[in-house]
């Protein structure tokens, strides 16, 4: 899960307009599309044996991930002659990015794609609009995408008000990365299991000066690991009814304060600017940071970037009062109002993508999680894990996964928090004072 931060100020407000046009298209009965059968062999009813049903699919992951998606879509089209999926990269989906902005605009204009990738934190925003099809009946009937078939914790971002509006697509969790070679040199035998251990290890691992300095730990100045920090410190982000920000308590700011202390003490470095996430990943790859918290979706890049330069590993995130892991990545949703034939074809494509063989293939191609329990047991995937043990960590973390607040205003809250995090790490602002100010602004977003 790589973010290019920047939620448009109009994005959350647009949802009210989107919701107002919820009735502009004829909503289809969810049970009209077949939810059963083998998605590798079942064909969609087209009404014509010579004309395939065309499905438009918007997604928001680029570079090599876009190439991987196009490769798999091409494979689907070749094996399903009655369906043609046209997949188009629409810019980043992360943090309310360009793909999500375009999707809101297309919904408002009455011309959305048939299916689209939805960033996990944006699901409440889109589901509340009434423009996403309720997939609950299809999932319950499906032999492939029955809820019990998915890995534990995998569905935490797909529901809104008790119904399923998405199916896990490119899913990730944040994991702990560490340089085993530097650990050995520092006489540290294991990765830290707690934040007190991380602080102590960061001091031992910091060495050198100037351009040759190696920092013990590099915080990622982003709201995704911040979610983990708040919940793992024993705090909460919003109240139980999502009406009030609660991330300004001592428990919620404990880990954040420890990170800032490491930065001020010269044991941690932080990257800034629009490419802050990629820069942090590269710092680890080049041995400039001995530890960091990054997406499991970065593991492929890390592995190829490090090569044989040093030994590295991943570990479960250090806990504080507890351990809570936020979901990351995206889900795939079907738009309301498309024809029965398109809906049936779209559902067949989604079932094919998430079936064990394809889910394992996608995971091995990209580093994202295999979303199905059966996918983990695929022989090719088991061989992959033996060769790449770093990927086991994400699977082990799923039992600690906790849903983010299901509020349509949550993305706006996160934008506020991101600004505060930048002030804390870029300018050295007080953690306590900043979070109090951000909580007050978030309350305005939640109740405005």
UniProtKB/TrEMBL annotation:
Region: Disordered, residue numbers: 27-50
Signal peptide residue numbers: 1-19
Biased composition (Low complexity): 31-50
A Pfam family assignment: SBP_bac_1
PROSITE patterns: PROKAR_LIPOPROTEIN, SBP_BACTERIAL_1
BP terms from Gene Ontology: transmembrane transport
Keyword annotations of the record: Signal, Transport
Family from the record: Belongs to the bacterial solute-binding protein 1 family.
Protein name: ABC transporter substrate-binding protein
């Amino acid at each position: 899960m790589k973010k290019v931060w920047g939620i448009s100020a109009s994005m959350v407000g647009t949802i009210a307009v989107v919701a107002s046009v919820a009735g502009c298209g004829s909503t289809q009965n969810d049970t009209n599309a077949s939810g059963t059968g083998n998605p590798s062999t079942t064909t969609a009813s087209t009404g014509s044996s010579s004309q395939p049903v065309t499905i438009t699919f918007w997604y928001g992951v680029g570079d090599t991930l876009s190439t991987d998606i196009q490769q798999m879509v091409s494979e689907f089209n070749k094996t399903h002659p009655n369906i043609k999926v046209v997949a188009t990269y629409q810019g980043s989906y992360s943090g309310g990015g360009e793909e999500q902005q375009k999707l809101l605009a297309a919904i408002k204009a009455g011309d959305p794609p048939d299916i689209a990738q939805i960033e996990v934190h944006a699901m409440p925003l889109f589901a509340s609009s009434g423009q996403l099809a309720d997939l609950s009946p299809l999932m319950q009937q499906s032999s492939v995408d029955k809820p019990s078939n998915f890995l534990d914790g995998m569905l935490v971002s797909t529901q809104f008000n008790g119904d399923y509006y998405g199916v896990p697509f490119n899913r990730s969790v944040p994991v702990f990365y560490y340089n085993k070679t530097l650990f050995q040199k520092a006489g540290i035998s294991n990765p830290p299991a707690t934040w007190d251990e991380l602080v102590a290890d960061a001091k031992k691992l910091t060495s050198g000066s100037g351009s040759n300095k190696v920092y013990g730990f590099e915080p990622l100045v982003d709201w995704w690991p911040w979610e983990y920090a708040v919940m793992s410190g024993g705090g909460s982000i919003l109240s139980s009814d999502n009406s009030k920000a609660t991330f300004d308590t001592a428990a919620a700011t404990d880990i954040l304060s420890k990170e800032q202390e490491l930065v001020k003490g010269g044991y941690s470095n932080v990257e800034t600017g629009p490419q802050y996430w990629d820069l942090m990943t590269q710092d680890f790859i080049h041995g400039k940071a001995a530890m960091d918290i990054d997406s499991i979706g970065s593991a492929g890049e890390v592995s190829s970037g490090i090569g044989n330069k040093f030994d590295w590993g991943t570990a479960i995130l250090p806990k504080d009062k507890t351990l809570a892991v936020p979901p990351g990545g995206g889900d795939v949703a079907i738009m309301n109002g498309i024809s029965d034939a398109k809906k049936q074809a779209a559902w067949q494509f989604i079932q094919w993508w998430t079936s064990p063989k394809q889910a394992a293939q996608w995971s091995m191609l990209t580093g994202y999680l295999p979303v199905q329990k059966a996918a983990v047991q695929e022989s090719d995937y088991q061989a992959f894990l033996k060769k790449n043990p770093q990927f086991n960590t994400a699977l082990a973390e799923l039992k600690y996964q906790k849903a983010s607040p299901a509020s349509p205003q949550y993305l706006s809250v996160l934008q506020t928090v991101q600004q505060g995090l930048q002030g804390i790490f870029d300018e050295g602002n007080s953690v306590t004072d900043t979070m109090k100010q951000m909580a007050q602004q978030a309350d305005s977003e939640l109740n405005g």
